[in-house]
Amino acid sequence: MTDRFSFNLKHTDGRARTGVISTTRGEIRTPAFMPVGTAATVKAMMPESVAATGADILLGNTYHLMLRPTAERIANLGGLHKFMNWDKPILTDSGGFQVMSLSDLRKMSEKGVQFQSHIDGSKHFLSPERSMEIQKLLGSDIVMCFDECPALPADRTRLNESMQMSMRWAARSKDAFGDRPSHALFGIQQGGLEQDLREESANALTEIGFDGYAVGGLAVGEGQEAMFGCLDFAPEQLPTDKPRYLMGVGKPDDIVGAVKRGIDMMDCVLPSRSGRTGQVFTRNGVVNIKNARHADDPRPLDEKCTCPACSKYSRAYLHHVFRSQEMISGMLLTWHNLHYFQEIMQGMRDAIAAGTFAAWEADFHAGRANGDIEQL
Ligand SMILES: [Zn+2]
After folding, report:
1. Which of 201, 236, 269, 274 is 20 to 30 Å apart from 291, CA to CA?
2. pLDDT(104) > 80
3. Angle (nearest 5°) at CA 174 between 7 and 262
4. Which residues surround ligand 1, an ion (CB under 5 A)?
5. Which of 93, 141, 254, 372 is catalytic?
């Protein structure tokens, strides 16, 4: 255990990196995938089950928690870790992205964003200062700067103005965060798909100085090709000795492509959300458990997977409980998906350490190209 937040970059292979982030609540092996615990729970999973999949850290959403049950209530109950029974590290987002995507009647100014709750219409205000206060109340180990994330496509003038404001908000976030060496504050690079705006943003953030740097403003509708195009330059504009976090990504092949381009951390609701809708990610690509072809199939989802869904149940059972809308369906499929995502991360960490990332990646794509096993 350590009393300071730190990052130890251990190996690189091409642009891919592996290392360890040390926090007071434990180590985070990178590249790391963070399951999303929106409302103080990773839906359909017990916290110990999330840890059993191999997750070292999870993400909590400031926007959701500030509205319900409120950050003040969670603080009074001992903080988010205690509240949700998760003693490993937690990263919280700033609330900015979800204010833009979920709330009603937003009014944005240099000061911050006034908005109405999507739950009950109540009025709230978020600013860099208020976001830092909320994330401190929650007890988050990794705090994100409050920023604005414009939807893509957006014109260059809009992207530039938005990025400039986010940089001013980043400086305010740093001031409000204060001196807390056992906790980390990450800056967020913006600038859309524009290389020079990204560069300017990276320089502004580096000047302020953060414990880690996120590539923000991607995975907002630009498509994989455009995202990879941006990741061909964006991570390398950020300091090499700090963790780089790509927010809101993604599908398995997005994750692999991001790590290949120098990303260390990611988060996404996809494995848990898909688990609840019957979509399963496997070594052989996507399986839709609701399809009738599984109804009589006694084989596991993936014979090589050691998760409970694959080691103890048949495709026929998983199909049945999904069709019957039984709760165990979401539980098992979420577990499998999270397990599979963590297996990808472990595979990449091992391959980068061994200098065999290219071979690992070729194998990953070959498995997916095979497609699902033949129908019985
Ligand atoms: Zn499995």
Report:
1. 269
2. no
3. 35
4. 305, 307, 309-310, 336
5. 93
